[in-house]
Amino acid sequence: MSDSDEKPEHQKENGEINGEEEIRLKPFQPWYSVQIKGASKNGEVVMFQITTVKLEQCKEEVEVDRQYEDFEWLQHCLNIVPNVKGVIFPPLPDRPIVSAAEAEAKSRKQLGTASKNIKGDEFHKDCRKLEKYLQGIVRHEAIGKCEALSNFLTKKEPPVRAKLKKGILSNLSRAVDGVRKGGHKDIDEMFQKERDLANDMQKIAKETSLNFDTMVNSLCRISMACNHLSTALCLGMSAEDNGASAIINKLQVEFAKSIDHYGYAVDVCTANDENTLGFHLDLYSRYWLSCKEMLFERTCALVQFDNASKTLEKAKPLKKPMAEAAKEDAEKELNAISEVAKKEITKFHQQRTLDFQKSLILYAEAKVKAARDVYALLAKDVSTIKQMDVEFD
């Protein structure tokens, strides 16, 4: 056979290999598109309306209702899925505030202890947080196609809500393990740096988020003070409508309008701050905790491997084969977790950088737009006051 006859076959083989590599290296495509369109309160329970589009099945759309306990059960099921050790799980948001006592406590924290106002339900914020949580799951290659997620998103009937045990003893045991194993020296310098970084950044991110919330709460109090001042100006108007009293009344009305405009601008700034940078800081204060938990899980595997190695060194001849097998199993588990963890950490740092950049841009743009809008309103109010006839007889 000539060289010219062999060449096409050789090219075909290379083409097949390249095609297989291309398929293997192709990024994970989500099976679902998820959106939480709203929430409704039924007694002490908040039901979230979830709309899911099955991207793999002719764009079929499914709508289900789920409560917060269903999300907790989903998180539990994802944690026990095989081969997920080393995965940084999307963090589950806090439970929504439902009772009147909780709402009152939150309002006093935001508006001040002397405030008698109670803020209304803010389930739209809970919807956005839970939607972000679900989007993080469906886009993750390791957990985005598991059966528990499919049942949660597509089955009309909610999953069995088994009560998860979160007692004092389990928390105490975890705290003790954290003290005992958390300071274990890592054999891999990269993972040791990541552990130190996660410990520091989790504290910094949480503190930053709390301080940002404090700043937003201060804006809420300023807005409330503006409303009180505007109301006081209107109530302080004179009953007489002639001479100097009429002029003063007009001035107070215009001044009250300008105070209302400024209060409205503060409300807009507050909402923008919460929806942009505030949302990001809250999300990644919890994401850093999830990263820290993943690294702790790997540290536990490292401790188990070190203990198995020490046991092998001290083992007697009769028990040596069993000790060798235990060490090999521990080493395989450590290597498997480490391989997954390296990829997860790389993706996590890339994503948090992009998200932080995006949130800062949105935050700055919203600030500029709000400042321009309030400037236009106040400039108009000042112009109106200047044009008024305020000469007294």
Could you walk me through the main structural features you see in this protein, from its secondary elements to its overall organization?
With 393 residues, this protein is mainly alpha-helical. The chain folds into two domains: 25-160, PX Domain (2-Layer Sandwich); 178-393, Substrate Binding Domain Of Dnak, Chain:A, Domain 2, CATH 1.20.1270. It has nine helices and three strands. The chain has helices at 3-25, 68-79, 100-111, 123-138, 147-154, 168-182, 189-235, 243-314, 320-386; strands at 32-42, 45-54, 60-67. It has a three-stranded antiparallel sheet. A hairpin with a 5-residue loop joins strand 2 and strand 3. The longest helix has 72 residues, at 243-314. The protein is elongated and about 110 Å long.
The gist of it:
The chain has 393 residues and is mainly alpha-helical. It has 2 domains: 25-160, PX Domain, CATH 3.30.1520.10; 178-393, Substrate Binding Domain Of Dnak, Chain:A, Domain 2. Helices cover 69% and strands 7% of the residues.
